[in-house]
Amino acid sequence: MTKQRTLSIIKPDATTRNLVGKILSHFEDSGLTIVAAKMVTLTPEQAGGFYAVHKERPFFGELVDYMCSGRVLVSVLEGEDAVNLNRKLMGATDPKKADPGTIRNLYAESIAANAVHGSDSAENAATEIKFFFPELK
Ligand code: GDP
Ligand code: MG
User: Fold this and answer.
1) Region of residue 33 (phi > 0: left; psi between -120 and 50: alpha; otherwise: beta)
2) Taking the CB of residue 70, how many other CB atoms lie within 10 A of it?
3) Which residue CA neighbors atom 6 of ligand 1 most closely?
4) Which helix (H) or strand (E) holds 118?
5) What is the pLDDT of residues 52-72, one digit of tens each?
6) Residue 28 Cα to chain centre, angstroms
7) Which of 27, 36, 71, 124 could make a disulfide contact with 76, Cβ separation 3.0–4.6 Å?
8) Annotated active-site positions, please?
9) Is the CB of 112 under 6 A from ligand 1?
10) Cβ–ligand 1 contact at 87 (below 6 Å)
């Protein structure tokens, strides 16, 4: 079994509704281990830097404002096939299209305020983990 790591963010819509514990339970119950975590309020520079791949998309400004609108819980999840497993647990970007029982199906409010972020590839996971946890071994 090959362990892998992925970056998770519990977004402001979820932290403000006290859903952090419930969402973390989805990760732990599926066998992922939380190896680093911090609660932070992102600056526009941090949110814009993190989502730089989306800077040409029409909703970029809205996305940055939203990600800075409240606290976020940033964590590193570790386990077998962590990137894909976390994406499965999250469900589709649009909660209306997310499978029953997924985090976004259960807790997300809209395509913008959709409760969680998760890295979409092993390569992006490595970049995103370094962005938030440069000291993590
Ligand atoms: P993800 O990988 O499933 O999070 O989705 P994307 O990488 O495509 O988009 C990144 C984030 O941008 C999403 O999680 C949403 O928070 C936001 N987003 C995506 N599509 C839209 C949209 O149409 N409108 C707005 N306001 N935000 C969006
Ligand atoms: Mg994405």
Assistant:
1) beta
2) 15
3) 93
4) strand 116-118
5) 999 999 999 999 999 999 999
6) 15
7) 36
8) 117
9) yes
10) no
